[in-house]
């Protein structure tokens, strides 16, 4: 028997709470008798990037059923290193999405102006299998806004121009224009898509994504995606303006008015309705939680039912059990709920986490009902929620990858997050969120990719562009928000094009002499959004294995709108550029034409 070259063998010492739930992977992986203890030890990859795991993949010949969720299709399973290999299914899944300017009333408080996808909030869920190609045509039917749709967390390996970040990877789509985004789902799990055009997603341009694949624990029923979000009675463009004014005097954005669970809730006056989910007694249910907020970190729980957490963002993890889960903006957690309590109705709770500087006038509730439970509202009470503003733990990726520590000191870079005054387009001194003393400000008719096409390296300073030239090397970044800043608060930091490895976080200033020992290089949490603690530091790493222009920004809608972003221009000479005369160029021409004809709609924020 050939030994696997690397990683991906389950830990022997799983926490007791998760043991029962855990699949006896070693049995099928190693055949009868299981492996010897020596073989089960996790191996440190020799260096750098994840290597091929074909040895492991060869063994995956089982089928995915309710009791073998670790399996997938021939040659691919939960042990597959999805950064290197995925099934090429040859299947293309097509979607058509139309964005319109309309009204909505998700919690019965009254109708307000909304921008919706296919007239629903949230928009249609995009469902595909691991390895499928997605072909999604977006039509912008708004009268007075551009748009661009970002497929959050999808790595876009060698398909950077499908990333939907206007001003970076494409021009905005003009009113009336449409664009087909085509890319392969090389990873699996739960995510969402949203507009990257200024604050537009806060007005409703969001939907969820479900990519079916293997899992680290078994379940019977997949309940699907379950987005939780803050909700404002003013539009996102109005709230962004208020937030910008408040920032001038060191203040935060206004509080949200309510929290919506799967697009609905009751309002403070009792109107509206609760979302209802049915649980089948005795069964295990998978629920795919997503925080699609603009401002608020949300902490969720289901009364009397602990969550068994099996994935964070697109990364399957060793299952662990918890009563409450804090979900930062853009973060996802896939959980399994066992319906083993009395047949009844139970409250699902979603509250803002005040320690994350979140504020909201409402609280989120929905109802989980066992089949056969009497009608009516639950009478259950919740347990006490933890108060810290940090990622859930322990987030131990199932496919174990280690980051080299030896190159850290030489290669690490530093990015300071702060407030600062800059002169705005209309000549005023305005306070913005800055990274490295510069607020990002993109031009939706002049994306970074156009600079690459033109071989033009005169990037505007406000593009906050950081070049990465070397291939397959580790990029280490210390992101710091020193305690001296006006109002140090936590920021959910999101990177496009990569999962980052979260090496550590801490308070105060990172010091190579004292903080280095606090970093974890051995299979650290990997994900695409994590918290930068208020007045503290965050250290991340990622390999330069995906040529493209990739944003890294705070996912608080108001903060990115106010400048809190950089972009990495990674291996620009190897980026797959748009074909000559392709749709990509039409998008730009249409946007330029629209702008010339509608000079009154000016971008008054970063454009992101
Ligand atoms: C969205 O609406 C368009 C136009 O009505 C329709 O063709 C398309 O099938 C809808 N998409 C989904 C996912 O429902
Ligand atoms: C949406 O419609 C309202 C009028 O109902 C209009 O004032 C606004 O400009 C429109 N917004 C967009 C983005 O088309
Ligand atoms: C969320 O709402 C949608 C639309 O109403 C529904 O199809 C879906 O089943 C709901 N999700 C859950 C987990 O109940
Ligand atoms: C969503 O994330 C924001 C910011 O990180 C946080 O304040 C809010 O509580 C989160 N919401 C949920 C439902 O987890
Ligand atoms: C119900 O399931 C949970 C795990 O989800 C477990 O911790 C608990 O002990 C079970 N309770 C009963 C009564 O079986
Ligand atoms: C930060 O900005 C300075 C110029 O003000 C620049 O020289 C430096 O390269 C920037 N740092 C990064 C990481 O881009
Ligand atoms: C390069 O970009 C700068 C900044 O946008 C622009 O002023 C200049 O004209 C461009 N040069 C070329 C040769 O396109
Ligand atoms: C987008 O539309 C909103 C109103 O719906 C408007 O306030 C804003 O100025 C528009 N932004 C741009 C850049 O067109
Ligand atoms: Cu922020």
UniProtKB/TrEMBL annotation:
<feature type="domain" description="Plastocyanin-like">
    <location>
        <begin position="450"/>
        <end position="572"/>
    </location>
</feature>
<dbReference type="InterPro" id="IPR011706">
    <property type="entry name" value="Cu-oxidase_C"/>
</dbReference>
<keyword id="KW-0479">Metal-binding</keyword>
<dbReference type="InterPro" id="IPR045087">
    <property type="entry name" value="Cu-oxidase_fam"/>
</dbReference>
<dbReference type="GO" id="GO:0005507">
    <property type="term" value="F:copper ion binding"/>
</dbReference>
<protein>
    <recommendedName>
        <fullName>laccase</fullName>
        <ecNumber>1.10.3.2</ecNumber>
    </recommendedName>
</protein>
<keyword id="KW-0560">Oxidoreductase</keyword>
<feature type="domain" description="Plastocyanin-like">
    <location>
        <begin position="99"/>
        <end position="214"/>
    </location>
</feature>
<dbReference type="InterPro" id="IPR001117">
    <property type="entry name" value="Cu-oxidase_2nd"/>
</dbReference>
<keyword id="KW-0732">Signal</keyword>
<keyword id="KW-1015">Disulfide bond</keyword>
<dbReference type="InterPro" id="IPR011707">
    <property type="entry name" value="Cu-oxidase-like_N"/>
</dbReference>
<dbReference type="GO" id="GO:0046274">
    <property type="term" value="P:lignin catabolic process"/>
</dbReference>
<feature type="signal peptide">
    <location>
        <begin position="1"/>
        <end position="20"/>
    </location>
</feature>
<dbReference type="Pfam" id="PF00394">
    <property type="entry name" value="Cu-oxidase"/>
</dbReference>
<dbReference type="InterPro" id="IPR008972">
    <property type="entry name" value="Cupredoxin"/>
</dbReference>
<keyword id="KW-0325">Glycoprotein</keyword>
<dbReference type="InterPro" id="IPR033138">
    <property type="entry name" value="Cu_oxidase_CS"/>
</dbReference>
<feature type="domain" description="Plastocyanin-like">
    <location>
        <begin position="227"/>
        <end position="373"/>
    </location>
</feature>
<dbReference type="InterPro" id="IPR002355">
    <property type="entry name" value="Cu_oxidase_Cu_BS"/>
</dbReference>
<dbReference type="Pfam" id="PF07732">
    <property type="entry name" value="Cu-oxidase_3"/>
</dbReference>
<keyword id="KW-0186">Copper</keyword>
<comment type="similarity">
    <text>Belongs to the multicopper oxidase family.</text>
</comment>
<dbReference type="GO" id="GO:0052716">
    <property type="term" value="F:hydroquinone:oxygen oxidoreductase activity"/>
</dbReference>
<keyword id="KW-0439">Lignin degradation</keyword>
<dbReference type="Pfam" id="PF07731">
    <property type="entry name" value="Cu-oxidase_2"/>
</dbReference>
């Amino acid at each position: 028997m050939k030994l696997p070259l690397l990683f991906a063998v389950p830990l022997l010492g799983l926490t007791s709470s998760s043991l029962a739930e855990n699949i006896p992977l070693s049995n099928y992986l190693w055949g009868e008798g299981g492996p010897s203890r020596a073989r089960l030890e996790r191996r440190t990859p020799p260096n750098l990037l994840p290597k091929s795991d074909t040895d492991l993949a060869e063994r995956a010949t089982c089928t995915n059923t309710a009791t073998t969720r670790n399996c997938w299709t021939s040659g691919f399973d939960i042990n597959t290193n999805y950064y290197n290999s995925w099934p090429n299914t040859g299947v293309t899944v097509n979607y058509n999405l139309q964005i319109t300017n309309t009204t909505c009333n998700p919690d019965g408080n009254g109708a307000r102006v909304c921008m919706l996808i296919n007239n629903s909030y949230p928009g249609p869920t995009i469902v595909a299998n691991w390895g499928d190609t997605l072909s999604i045509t977006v039509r912008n039917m708004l009268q007075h806004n551009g748009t661009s749709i970002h497929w959050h967390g999808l790595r876009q390996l060698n398909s950077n121009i499908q990333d939907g970040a206007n001003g970076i990877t494409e021009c905005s789509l003009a009113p009336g224009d449409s664009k087909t985004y085509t890319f392969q789902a090389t990873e699996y799990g739960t995510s969402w898509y949203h507009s990257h055009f200024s604050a537009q997603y806060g007005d409703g341009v969001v939907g969820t994504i479900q990519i079916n694949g293997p899992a680290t624990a078994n379940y019977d029923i997949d309940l699907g995606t379950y987005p939780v979000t803050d909700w404002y009675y003013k539009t996102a463009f109005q709230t962004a303006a208020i937030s910008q004014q408040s920032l001038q005097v060191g203040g935060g954005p206004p509080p949200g008015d309510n929290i919506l669970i799967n697009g609905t809730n009751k309002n403070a006056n009792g109107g509206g309705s609760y979302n209802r989910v049915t649980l089948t007694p005795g069964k295990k249910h998978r629920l795919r939680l997503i925080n699609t907020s603009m401002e608020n970190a949300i902490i969720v729980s289901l009364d009397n039912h602990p969550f068994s957490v099996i994935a964070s963002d697109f990364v399957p993890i060793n299952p662990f059990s918890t009563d409450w889960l804090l979900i930062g903006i853009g973060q996802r957690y896939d959980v399994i709920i066992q319906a083993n309590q009395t047949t009844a109705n139970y409250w699902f709770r979603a509250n803002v986490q005040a320690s994350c500087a979140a504020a909201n006038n409402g609280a989120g509730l929905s109802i989980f009902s066992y089949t056969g439970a009497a009608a009516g509202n639950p009478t259950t009470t919740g347990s006490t929620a933890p108060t810290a503003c940090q990622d859930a733990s322990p987030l131990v990726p199932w496919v174990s990858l280690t980051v080299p520590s030896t190159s850290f000191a030489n290669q690490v870079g530093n990015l300071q997050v702060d407030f600062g005054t800059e002169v705005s387009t209309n000549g005023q001194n305005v306070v913005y969120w800055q990274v490295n003393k510069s607020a990002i400000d993109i031009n939706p008719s002049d994306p970074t990719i156009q600079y690459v096409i033109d071989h033009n390296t005169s990037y505007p300073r406000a593009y906050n562009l950081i070049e990465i030239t070397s291939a397959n090397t580790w990029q280490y970044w210390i992101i710091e928000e020193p305690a001296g800043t006006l109002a140090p608060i936590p920021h959910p930091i999101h990177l496009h094009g990569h999962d980052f490895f979260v090496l550590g976080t801490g308070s105060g200033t990172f010091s190579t002499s004292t903080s280095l020992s606090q970093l974890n290089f051995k299979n650290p949490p990997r994900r695409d959004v994590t918290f930068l603690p208020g007045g503290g530091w965050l250290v991340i790493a990622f390999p330069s294995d995906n040529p493209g222009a990739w944003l890294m920004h705070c996912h608080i809608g108001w903060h990115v709108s106010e400048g809190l972003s950089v972009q990495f221009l990674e291996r620009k000479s190897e980026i797959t550029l748009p074909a000559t005369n392709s749709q990509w160029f039409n998008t730009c021409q249409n946007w330029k034409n629209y702008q010339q004809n509608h000079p009154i709609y000016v971008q008054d924020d970063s454009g992101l």
